[in-house]
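User: I'm writing a tutorial on reading structure tokens. Could you give me a worked example: one chain, its sequence, then its tokens, then a sentence or two explaining what the tokens reveal?
Assistant: Sure. Here is the example chain.
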Amino acid sequence: MIHVNALRKNFADTPVLKGLSCDIAPQEVVCVIGPSGSGKSTFLRCLNGLESIEGGEVWVNGLPVQDPKTDLNALRQRVGMVFQRFNLFPHMTVLENLIMAPMDVRGVSRADAIREAKRLLEKVGLADKIDAWPSSLSGGQQQRVAIARALAMTPEIMLFDEPTSALDPELVGEVLSVMKTLAQEGMTMVIVTHEMAFAREVADRVLFIDQGVIQEADTPEVIFTHPANPRTAAFLSKVLK
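And here are its predicted structure tokens:
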């Protein structure tokens, strides 16, 4: 579903991604871990064209992201993304946040959009917040609304960029629970995360990125129990307390 070959990305004269290659299969859940500044979020943003690339290839659902002829807006309709910050429209209610894009972009009728929004809010445990304003919600609730909003576009792939890093610790679990449900339902997901226990439980595969390179890619069992790369082992020794 995602094919990345020799991906390179620079910021000014600084190389951030130095030739990443990987494939992600349909319904696979891939967690991306690594130290801050290693290129994890940049890698994720390259998958849907939010960052341009200097070299290599990125194919998503058969579309070449790097090709200037590719309609990135059409691509992003099929690839949902959830960011660290919730990015909800503060002047819109929860319902309005969910129905705007399906109606404006996909041409869904208001009645159908509302019906789907109610279903998705039920799914993320926020059916009672349908008429609430984002400012009245906790961080965890806002992030769950952001996930529901991304799902309202019926994406085939979901990208998560450290979706719990801006949350108070006690709110992390409610967001991870929604993501676990998506994984169990077979959603193709690429998740940049610092939540190692979550990665170990949910991921089919874990990518360890450091210094702009995939240093190791394997099952959670291998990565967390007996990593082959000394750099992976050194990183995990610091974060697994």
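What the tokens reveal: The mean pLDDT is 94. The radius of gyration is 18 Å.
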